[in-house]
Structures are given as C-alpha cells and as structure tokens.
From TrEMBL:
Residues 1-26 are annotated as: Disordered. GO terms for biological process: D-alanine transmembrane transport; L-alanine transport; L-isoleucine import across plasma membrane; L-valine import across plasma membrane. Coiled coil: none annotated. Gene3D superfamilies: P-loop containing nucleotide triphosphate hydrolases. Signal peptide: none annotated. The lineage of its organism: Bacteria, Bacillati, Actinomycetota, Actinomycetes, Micrococcales. The keyword Nucleotide-binding applies. This is Branched-chain amino acid ABC transporter ATP-binding protein. It comes from Luteipulveratus mongoliensis.
Length: 304
C-alpha cells in the first residue's frame, strides 16, 4: 500500500489487521478513521436498527411482496436471498423509496420511512447500490464519489456561488474523504479515470464507495457480485467484512450461496414475495423449506 501523504517510510501509521485469510492488504488506520461513519446512531450495536413490519407491495393484481417482516441489527451483515422473482429487489425498492408500499412499514431507528422521498431517506441514513450499475459514466471515479459526499454537505447555493469559507472547507473535505473512500475499496489509483472506462469489477467497487460516501447507517448491496469470477468474489467478501468492521451495517442481496453463507451473520429467505425462513447461515442451509425453494423438492403436503 502507498505511503499516505505527510508520512515517510519510517513514520507509517498503524494498520488494522484482519483475521480473514482472503482479506485485502491491511488497511491504514488513518484511512479507516476517515472512512468510518461520522454520525450519531441512536441504537446500540446488536439492537434493531431497522424494523420491517408486514411490508406489502402490489402492482395491479400482482402481489410482489406479501406481509414481510424482519429486523436488521446494528453492526451485522444480513443476507436477503431467494429464487428469481422472490421479491428481494422489490423489498430494497420499498425500503429506499423507489416503490411506495401498499401496506406495512419500514422504520429506521424508530422513524417511519413511509412516504419520504428517496433523497430524504438517503440523508436519514439508508443507502444502496443497484443490481444494474448506475454510475455517471462521463465523470471521474472521484467525481462520482463526490456526488455521494454532497448528501452530507450544508453549503447553500449562494455560498457555493461566492465560495464561502464553509464551501471551501467542504470542497477540501470532499477531495480528502473521496480519495480515502477510493483507497478503502481498492481503486484509489483510478481516481481520475472516467467511470465508463473502468473495468466492470472496479465499477462495482466505485458504486459501493459512492454509497458509503453518504455515511449510511444501513448500506444495502443489491447483487454486488454479479458478473464476478471466483477470485473477485473472494475479494468482495473481504471488502464487505471490512465495511462492517469499520462501523457499518450491511443488508446484502446475492445469488451466490457460497458468498452469502461465507459473509453473513443472519439470513432472511423470500419465496414468491413471502418470508419462508430466517436464521443463521447454518440454520438456513439445513432448512427444508429453503432447500425446496431452491431445488424444487416437494413440501410435506406433497405440493411441489
């Protein structure tokens, strides 16, 4: 890893060690401190950060999500899995304001998110990536991260026009924190490259960095390993663990079961818009209903 600005080889900062054999190189504690969320979170680690109750989404006569309830605890990595069409992304969209729930509620630290606009939900602390990458292709990697950082800025339009002291401070903070975030996800050397020119895996990492830039209380990752080879998936697992270890809570949608089982603390399983199971990776791996959902085995009553 390169020497941070302002240090010499004899003055290297402490590093954060990792217990995982497939983790990326140790992260400078200086970088980790810059990237760590700098905002108050009302609930303690291990308590419910998000509570989803009877969440229902319908499109005409189709029920895409049917009275789904589960909690997300602060400091955990929760997996949300299920066969294609199970309602996973619909759940994400209902949580983040893309879809308006037909019934039920989503609460972040006890605050109901229902009826709020997407940018308001982001400011409250819920950020996401998308199944299909949505970067600004004509902007550099650093500029893409700066878009996320702007969610936390307080400069007014006149302040930006006349370059007030606050605006200049926030501008400098954008560069410093943006570079730290790019280093955190392993693509700092691509800061000045256009997003559209980055390799696919780097674009995925950039989207995660941009979401982290909003300082989320909950980071929602929608199939971040899509299109990755096995080595890239191992690197992604290590990155997700590092994100959690740096103080974030993660909700993960993913089809790759090895990745899900290897990185999550708990898992919620959906099928045809309903929750059919919830528990530890080991419990989910052995649950007959989950096995039936993925393999098409018959249920106890003989129905396929």
């Amino acid at each position: 890893m390169s020497t941070p600005a302002g240090t010499t080889p004899d003055e290297q900062p402490d590093v954060i060690e990792t217990e995982h054999p497939d983790a990326p190189p140790p992260l400078d504690s200086e970088v980790a401190q810059v990237v760590a969320p700098d905002r108050d979170i009302e609930v303690a680690v291990g308590d419910n950060l998000v509570e989803i109750r009877d969440l229902t989404v319908t499109f005409g006569g189709l029920t895409a999500l049917d009275s789904v309830s589960f909690d997300i605890r602060r400091g955990e990595i929760l997996g949300l899995i299920g066969p294609n069409g199970a309602g996973k992304t619909t759940c994400f969209n209902a949580m983040t304001g893309v879809y308006k729930p037909s019934a039920g509620s989503v609460e972040l630290e006890g605050h109901n998110l229902g009826g709020r606009k997407q940018h308001v939900i982001t400011r409250l602390g819920l950020a996401r990536t998308f199944q299909n990458i949505r970067l600004f292709g004509q902007m550099t990697a650093l500029e893409n991260v700066a878009v996320g950082l702007d969610a936390r800025h307080k400069t007014s339009v006149p302040g930006a026009v006349f370059r007030s002291p606050r605006h200049r401070r926030e501008e400098q903070d954008t560069i410093e924190r943006g570079m730290a975030l790019l280093e955190f996800v392993g693509i700092a050397d691509k800061a000045r490259d256009l997003a559209r020119n980055l390799p696919y895996g780097y674009q995925r990492r950039l989207e995660i960095a941009r979401a982290l830039a909003t300082e989320p209380k909950l980071l929602c990752l929608d199939e971040p390993a899509a299109g990755f080879n096995p080595a890239e998936k191992d690197e992604l697992m290590a990155l997700i663990r590092t994100i959690r270890d740096d103080g974030y809570t993660v909700l993960l949608i993913e089809h790759d079961m090895r990745l899900v089982m290897g990185v999550t603390d708990r898992i919620v399983v959906l099928e045809f818009g309903k929750k059919i199971a919830e528990g530890s990776p080991q419990e989910i791996r052995e649950d007959p209903k989950v096995i039936a959902a993925y393999l098409g085995e018959e249920s106890d009553d003989g129905a396929a």
